[in-house]
Amino acid sequence: MTRRGRRQKAPWSAPPVDSDDGSEATHIPLPIQLEWLLTKTDNLEDLVRFLAEELSVNPFKEYLDTCTCSADATYLSAGSVDQLLTCISNKLEIDILETARNQSCIAILADETCDEGNLEQFAIFGKFPYHGSTEHFLGIVNFENITAKGLMDTISEFLLAKGIDIEKVMCVAFDGCNTMSGSVKGVQRLFRHQSVYSIYVNCRNHKLALCFKHVMKGYSILQETDACLFSFAKLFEYSAQKDNVLRNIQEVKGENVLEPIKPLVTRWLTHKDS
What is the value of pTM for the model shown? Predict the structure, then answer.
């Protein structure tokens, strides 16, 4: 890791977090400490020293103890930033996965999507208690086989790679498409072949979105209104220049600055053939 532009050591102190009974908290989760630090400084060297000296992250500690490079350095090279983010990501993932493996039961949430390059991906989340939070991002995995068996194999291999016992999964949540929700050959059925007592819950947001969509099919004026609002939102969402113009017009007129409402992210919305 490169060091350029050294600054004076920052006066570290823990963020003000108290326990439920009013006494001083004995442990502050790492994500909270990092978030607090990033609000106090924009210097990457401060962040590195915080990780090394306050959190005792060994790779950073060893580096600072043995580094013999110039004293006027900063941690601003792209390579240093990438390495630092990788270290933080690995640290958070190790802690979260270790907690997940020690649970008696967990829930898995998975959603399939397709990026702009037509690459099929699965975003997988876990639901279990950890530092007061119950939902945790576990990872994104690419796949080619979009059949129920292919998706099930992808989930199984992902959990195996993360060291999570699939038999501990007592609840699974997918969207409502037939491939995922099928009671005979869907992923939720195949999941019960490996975790006998797992319960399937489908995405209520998708179902609710489809209810509105099916109502709109009978009224052309509603379809046109939906398309108009969607286009209006995209006009300002994808153009920072147009968004600034809209904001400036409201400020000049002395009005409260309002942001355009974003469309629901459910891909089934704005699809007339849904």
Answer: 0.50
Task: Look up residue 121 and give its two tokens.
Answer: 């991906």
Fold that domain 104-202 belongs to in CATH: Nucleotidyltransferase; domain 5 (3.30.420)
Whether residue 12 is predicted with pLDDT greater than 50 in this model: the reply is: no
Q: What is the pLDDT of residues 89-143, one digit of tens each?
A: 888 888 888 888 888 788 888 877 766 666 777 888 888 776 666 777 888 887 7
